[in-house]
Amino acid sequence: MRLLRQTWLLARNDLRQEARRLELVLTAGFFTLVVVVMFALAFFALDGSVQRKAIPGMVWLCIAFVGALTLTRVFDRERESNTLAALLAAPVERLAIYLSKLLVTLVVLLSCSALLVPGLGLLFPSSQVFSANPLALVALIVLGCLGYAAVGTLFAAGLATSSGKNVLLSVILYPLTTPVLLFALVATQRLLEGHPELWGTLSQIAALDVVLIGVGAWLFETVLIGAAHSSPAHSSPASNGSARAAAVSARARSKPVN
Amino acid sequence: MKYIPYALLVGAAALFPYCVQRVFLHTPIEAEMGTAQKIFYFHVPLAWICMLFAVICGIAAGVQLRRRSERAEALAVAAGEMTVLAGVGVLITGPIWGDATWGTPWTGDARQVSTALLWLVFVAYLLVREYGPPNSERIAAALAIFGAIDVPIIYYAVKIWKTTHPQTGVVGSLPQSMWNTLFICLAALMMLSIALVWIRAAQARLAIALDQAWIAADTQQRAAQPA
Amino acid sequence: MDELNVFEQPEQPEQAQASTEAPGEAPGTTKVEGRDPATVRLKRAYEAEVENKVASDYSHIVWAYGVIWAIFAIYGAILWRRASAQRADLAALQAKHK
């Protein structure tokens, strides 16, 4: 209960700040719009049956791009105001930090999908089948985004304090999230085809989400502590990247002496 | 202890000629795929080695995070490199074999795609370790753990994804003599890869120790200079 | 079509041979059985196909084995170089301490 309350408090705090500035939602939403327009320009010539095969790819590629963009920004506020160390020192469960960030990412991704799916429906007529089964559509988008965000939040937290390493996030994120994206692709395909096993696939995604969130919650603390303590003052000499740099400079200093 | 990897290397070097001789002269030619199936005897063990070291890398990374053990960290790095190396071997020999028997190098078969995805995860691991920020060894360890957990998930995900695509030919059942040859090749490759991982892990530990020694010497020197 | 053209060439002398032997059943010679042009052509086609297959298998196998061994050799060479660099590093450290 305490965990849930803390999670909700942290998430509410983030969401309130977000509601004040709308920075994440507006940038990500605009990016979604741009991607949809680019898809429309690139694929406008596809005819009906081919369109239906291409649409799952468009949906999840767009979410993967927007997700990577959002995740690089989710922890930025902590980095800029250096609140991550303070947050770790505060009597807050680490799991609550993870879950609240996950929630924020999920909210941003869902608001982007709210733009993405109708947009695709408008530009690609064959994707209007989506509206036939709104419940399954919502479940699919929520579950897919949840799995993506569960992996993404973990690594975004790890890379939070390092500036200019956002490429690394994409390098990590895309291979690791491929399984959940593949499941989501299959489910979307089945949704479009009206496949009877749709709910089976959706429950598989739900199970995968549980695994991903579990692993993410398990690893979050170690990754985050590494991130918060990466400033040179805290670094232990053992097996550390900054130790590597220090050793390199130590060797360089010894050269002119010899 | 120090000479075990070199003994393994010597053993592998002795076993390899025998493997090749056995593969080409003493094992019958497979009826459906013909001589090109000889690639199988090194391709399949390499794939197993790739998976095995992926899992070892994940476990070692878990131990590294839990115990803050340098030994486990060194092993994780070495195993990660071996995974990528064996993965390159598998991903190159696979299409060569496919080209010889199926007529196309890349059929998009579930195993091909899942091996490629696993390989990507571990390439990301090495990239993060090499070019990551100062705290990257923890992120990389988390990545390796995720990768090891992902091994079955990736395979299943690709399999379910494949159901929307046409199926392709699969390797049928093979006679016992071919499996025996396969296991001898597996033994040779295992000896080689364990030796290389061992040497690499020792090097990683030595590198950490050298870094520490240099820093210690440097701080000593700098403490002495102003006085 | 391409394959057929290839086999047309060696077929010529074969046919000539068959035609010389067929009419002249001279005493002291035995009749050649089962060498009619159709069978010979078929056999030739099979032989050529097998030859192509063997050549292709051969090159595929050589490439595959070469790639595997090259990968391990390159990795071994990298390890070797790293080891010698570390040895030099250690020597430099020891020289500094003296």
Automatic annotation (TrEMBL), chain A:
It is a multi-pass membrane protein. It is found in: Membrane. Its main location: membrane. This is CcmB protein. Coiled coil: none annotated. Keywords: Cytochrome c-type biogenesis, Membrane, Transmembrane, Transmembrane helix, Transport. It comes from Enhygromyxa salina. InterPro entries: Cyt_c_biogenesis_CcmB. Belongs to the CcmB/CycW/HelB family. GO terms for cellular component: plasma membrane. One of its GO terms (molecular function) is heme transmembrane transporter activity. Residues 230-251 have a biased composition (Low complexity). Residues 230-258 are annotated as: Disordered. The chain crosses the membrane at residues 21-46, 58-75, 95-117, 137-160, 167-186, 198-220. Pfam families: CcmB.
Automatic annotation (TrEMBL), chain B:
One of its GO terms (biological process) is cytochrome complex assembly. Keywords: Cytochrome c-type biogenesis, Membrane, Transmembrane, Transmembrane helix. GO terms for molecular function: heme binding; heme transmembrane transporter activity. Pfam families: Cytochrom_C_asm. It is a multi-pass membrane protein. It is found in: Membrane. InterPro entries: Cyt_c_assembly, Cyt_c_biogenesis_CcmC, Cyt_c_biogenesis_CcsA/CcmC. GO terms for cellular component: plasma membrane. The chain crosses the membrane at residues 41-63, 75-98, 110-128, 140-158, 178-199. Required for the export of heme to the periplasm for the biogenesis of c-type cytochromes. This is Heme exporter protein C.
UniProtKB/TrEMBL annotation, chain C:
Keywords: Membrane, Transmembrane, Transmembrane helix. It comes from the Bacteria. The chain crosses the membrane at residues 61-80. Residues 1-37 are annotated as: Disordered. Residues 8-23 have a biased composition (Low complexity). This is Uncharacterized protein. It comes from Enhygromyxa salina.
